[in-house]
Amino acid sequence: MPECQNCGSHVTDAYARVFTPDDVTSPRACPSCETVTRDRNGIREKRT
């Protein structure tokens, strides 16, 4: 099962397939990440 590169949480194969580029096996950020978020240009620090 793939893991998030940022926080180490397990993600589903379907999540990894949808939210990672074709040449990457693990997402850079996931819904469990508390300090970063995804946007159209990649990942960024949350603005809180």
Automatic annotation (TrEMBL):
InterPro entries: DUF7563 (IPR055985). It holds the Pfam family DUF7563. This is Small CPxCG-related zinc finger protein. It comes from Halobacterium hubeiense.
